[in-house]
Amino acid sequence: METHRLVLTGDLNQFGFLFGGRLLGWIDEASWIAASLDFPACQFVTVGMDEVAFRHSVRQGSILTIDCRKIRQGTTSVAYSVEVRDGRDARRGVIFSTRVSFVNVDAEGRKQPLVVSIC
Question: What does DSSP assign to residue 42?
Answer without folding.
Answer: -
